[in-house]
Amino acid sequence: MGPKPREEDDEAFAAAVDELYASSFDAFVKLRGDLATRLRAAGDVAAAKRISAARKPTRAAWALNQVVRREPERIARVIETRADAVTSQKNGSADAIRDSARTYREAVAEALRSARAVLEADGLSLTVLQARRLGETLQVLAADDGARATLMSGRLTEDVAADDPFAGLEAGPALSRGPTRAGHEPAASKRDDEAEARRREAERARREREQRIAEARARIADLEEEHATARRASTEADRLLGHAQRDAEQAKTALARAAQGLAEAQERLDALREPASAAKSRR
Fold first, then answer.
1. Domain boundaries, given as residue ranges, for the chain
2. pTM of the model
């Protein structure tokens, strides 16, 4: 999901990766190259390789990173209220279950509003799919003890899809349809359940397909941006090389003129010396 903090992270790399993931969305690729160059120039080749391999976040992941960095209390509130809602589901009354689920939903909504504000401030927008992924990613990571560290590090790179982000947080106790006629479920109800299961599976497959498509498009956009940056760098290098070649040719020409002038001056000096030598010999 993103480069996780490691014990062996040195200060230079930690500072570089934080600067990278705190940067604006469009500046990510160029800054990544600049940071790698900076670390390599400082002699930290290993850190330069690691920063070069850092993945550019999706728009949704980037927005969540910025909320974590600027308003960490928003994300902390989502995690806290979800934990309260889960506890109420196990031990609370119907009112406590409804209240805790509502509080959790409000915390999620506040965090998503902050994420949208960050995106708008950076001149970015989200498709319907990206907006849904933003909410799902926040809720899935908030519910996963192992993934929270990545979320709270502000180094998230990928979206996470969920069939039902609010699973297990019903507004109140579920109502059972109960068995009928000798404890057997009616055939019509069974068919409905099977149809619903097929619908859910089809929806899950559709979401996974959309996620793969979105990830592929994001990867293509990332590579296109890297290609454009490399092409601009190559063009600049060619321009500088052209200037250097012209300067070298001009220097060679100036050197040849100077050498010719020196030779001519030496000849004139020798010519001036000859009459004086001749006069001394006659004496």
1. 1-56, 57-171, 210-283
2. 0.57
